[in-house]
Design a protein that fits this description.
elongated, alpha+beta, single chain, 12-stranded mixed β-sheet, about 45% helix, about 400 residues, 12 strands
């Protein structure tokens, strides 16, 4: 590692991203920088009480900071992403995540699906929006928003799928400046989600159920007689696939075929990638599709599988960045906390990439905590040692952390 420590680089990345946003006042900048540092420096629960204990400001100052609802997280994270996701192929990944929460006064609390538990759980749900780098197999989050509960959706006269699509469309100027391709899981392979997205110049990549009704496109040519030729040649039987109509691709641990098909449920042609497992496995085929029917089948698979990197952002945020620790019942503070937690994970990734070290959120957390505590000891006790002594202390700290990891 270079002389510049991970903590210093983390703060440098944060300040650089903050400077890219217009109309940021100095008091806000100081408090924000301190709060973002504490999201990685605090080893335990991250809430207002802990921020007041570890930070340079009072607990009330941090509470006031988290009420700042006009802060542009998309611009902040977009500045980090533009510097560190360098691949040519990018896409927008979206995925809801369940946040455990108790109490009756929390806004938008209800029952939401938890993929980890495999059941509906009481709490909150956030929809995370990230940018995936297909070439480098990486992901960073752009931001998140809290999902409305059933009562709020009824007042909006929308269902959950309508709300998801309407929110993405409302941010389409920012999203389409990065990519026009949206990658989502199988829940979003619905006509009510796909059609509005395509009408607003998005392409969607997702996964079908195994029993979906798909048709081969017709090979019949126009005869010049009255009437349109038939649209389809027959329903696709995936247990007996017509390989003459497919293009085969080489993949590990299975077989992959690609072809253009008509999806009855979506009422449109799509590019389909069919993955069959290796011989001896009992699971069935998996069907991935893109509404861009000219897309290569191998690309469809690459885009969809890279989507899972967004899940790792949620995992890191929940395990190490305190995304589930906010105890506030204020919608503004909850939103700020969720976004700050995911942004802290972005900053840790950016700092590791800049220093040329392998990213590990656990190691980052451990090292930044140790470096921060060392700085606090030096500051609180009024020690002013020689810079060479400080450098030696940091080097010893780096070696200690590396051995512990």
């Amino acid at each position: 590692m270079t002389k510049e420590t991970l903590l210093m680089q983390y703060q440098s990345e944060c300040l650089s991203a903050l400077k890219s946003i217009a109309n940021i006042h100095k008091p806000f900048e100081k408090t924000f920088m301190d709060a973002m540092k504490l999201f990685m420096a605090i080893p335990d629960r991250i809430n207002f009480l802990q921020l007041g204990r570890y930070g340079c400001f009072s607990e009330q100052t941090y509470r006031n900071l988290f009420e700042h609802e006009t802060f542009d997280w998309f611009a902040f994270n977009g500045s980090i992403i533009s510097k560190h996701l360098t691949g040519k192929r990018k896409a927008i990944a979206m995925d809801p995540s369940c946040i455990p929460k108790s109490g009756k006064k929390t806004p938008r609390i209800g029952y939401f699906w938890s993929g980890c538990a495999g059941e509906y759980k009481r709490g909150l749900e956030i929809m995370g929006i990230g940018v995936i780098d297909i070439d480098n197999h990486e992901c960073m989050t752009l931001g998140s928003i809290q999902t409305p509960d059933c009562k709020t959706l009824d007042n909006m006269d929308k269902n959950l799928v309508d709300w998801y699509s309407s929110y993405l469309i409302s941010r389409k100027d920012k999203l389409q400046s990065i990519s026009r391709t949206v990658v989502a899981d199988a829940f979003f392979s619905k006509e009510t989600f796909i059609t509005p997205m395509c009408e607003n110049d998005f392409h969607v990549i997702s996964r079908f159920r195994n029993d979906v009704i798909l048709y081969y496109p017709t090979l019949e040519q126009k005869t010049g007689k009255r009437g349109h030729p038939k649209w389809f040649d027959g329903r696709i039987d995936f247990a007996n696939l017509d390989l003459t109509r497919c293009k085969e691709y080489e993949v590990n641990k299975g077989k992959l075929y690609g072809l253009r098909v008509y999806a009855k449920a979506l009422k449109r042609y799509v590019s389909l990638a069919i993955w069959y497992p290796m011989d001896g496995r009992t699971d069935k085929w998996q069907l991935y599709f893109s509404t861009d029917d000219s897309m290569d089948g191998r690309e469809v698979l690459d885009y969809y599988r890279t989507r899972f990197q967004l899940e790792f952002c949620f995992r890191d945020g929940k395990q190490h960045a305190g995304i589930t620790n906010c105890q506030s019942t204020d919608f503004r503070k909850l939103d700020f906390h969720f976004n700050a937690s995911l942004a802290a994970v972005n900053l840790a990734k950016a700092a590791c990439k800049r220093l040329g070290i392998t990213y590990s959120i656990s190691s980052c957390k451990s090292f930044i905590h140790n470096a921060y505590m060392l700085e606090r000891f030096i500051c609180v006790f009024g020690i002013s040692p020689d810079p060479q002594v400080i450098e030696k202390l940091f080097k010893e700290l780096i070696l200690f952390t590396a051995r512990a990891a």
